[in-house]
Amino acid sequence: MQDNFFKALTKAAAGNELTRQDVITLLGALPGDEETKLFDMADQVRKKHFGDEVHLRGIIEFSNYCRNDCHYCGLRRSNKDIERYRIPIEEIVETAKYAAQLGYGTIVLQSGEDSRYSGEDLAEIIRQVKKVGNFAVTICVGERSREDYELMKKAGADRYLLKHETADSGLFTQLRPGTTLKERIKGLTWLKELGYQVGSGNIVGLPGQTMETLADDILLLRALDVEMAGIGPFIPHQQTPLRDSKTGDLALTLKTLAVARLILPQTHLPATTAVGTLHPDGRKMALRCGANVIMPNLSPASYREKYQIYPEKAGSKENADESHEKITSLVKEMGRRISTGQGHSPKDKFKDER
């Protein structure tokens, strides 16, 4: 084990704040003993703060329309080969009823940045879903006005997921034409001010990304003091400008997740669908590296394959029953148990919601 790696890991074990160089050093953990030590420590931190509970958060992908033209996403507006859809509110409510029957504590309402929905439209969907069961509701619909965020919060939304994707402002604008990292961070700040439990996160392996950028991603998550962080690998889509780019490295993704766990001990970290797409046991690997959340796809089967951010998305060809059964079996195989609560943040400022 390299001396600088040992020192950084020892510093993390003592609960001391890690520097940017410490983070870069840990991200560079070598295969073998260093990776094993990093993953084991992340798993210990996860167990200390969250126990062996795995929180299931059921996703309903209710629209695949998007106004943006991001270079890495299959939902981009320039993709003319995708069959667009919007799930009627009645079907969204029926799906939420199914989630309630299965015992889900959280529903995630996710879509592209679909301008057809006003803030009030989104608020009404939230109200209808909240009537169905005792859910926490997470919203993931991209950048909106502060007024829209406020409308959704008043309608009952508990959490908002707005991934920053990359902390490199130049790379952000290059890959997301017409948008800026500054505006995205402003949105995250508004969400905090409005009392949401806030999620962000980044993509590992984006073309042009460096180890320094990846360290900055984790440090930005710390600075934002997020309640959830979605960290997943880049997977190229054939209908995007990055179609010929290299797929993100699974090992580096797991190391990024593990370092994030050390720096964000009380933050919910999902074992993302993308790691499950890269490897059949990807979600298990992530759960061993600090993750404590899985987000099964509960969308009706007729829509699943149309929400193609990247190709061959894990679970896209399954129905909701298959997705749920596979995830619950996975959790039990690992000797962990499925949480029966809503999975609110353990941070003291959210203690009234727990």
What is the CATH-assigned architecture? Alpha-Beta Barrel
Number of helices: 14
CATH domain topology: TIM Barrel
How many separate structural domains? 1
CATH homologous superfamily grouping: Aldolase class I
Distance between the termini: 41 Å
Q: Residue share in helices?
A: 40-55%
CATH C-level class: Alpha Beta
| Overall pLDDT score | 95
Secondary-structure element string = HHHEHEHEHEHHEHEHHHEHHE
Q: Specify Rg, calculated over alpha carbons.
A: 19 Å
How would you sum up this structure, described in words?
The protein is an alpha/beta fold and 354 residues long. It has one domain (22-343): Alpha-Beta Barrel (TIM Barrel). Helices cover 43% and strands 12% of the residues. The chain has 14 helices and 8 strands. It has helices at 3-13, 20-27, 33-50, 89-102, 119-132, 146-154, 169-175, 181-193, 211-224, 250-263, 273-278, 282-287, 301-304, 320-333, and strands at residues 53-63, 106-111, 136-140, 159-161, 197-204, 228-233, 293-294, 337-338. Strands 1, 2, 3, 4, 5, 6, 7 and 8 form an 8-stranded parallel sheet that branches. Helix 4 links the parallel strand 1 and strand 2 (106-111). Helix 1 (3-13) runs parallel beside helix 3 and helix 5 packs parallel to helix 6 (146-154). The mean pLDDT is 95.
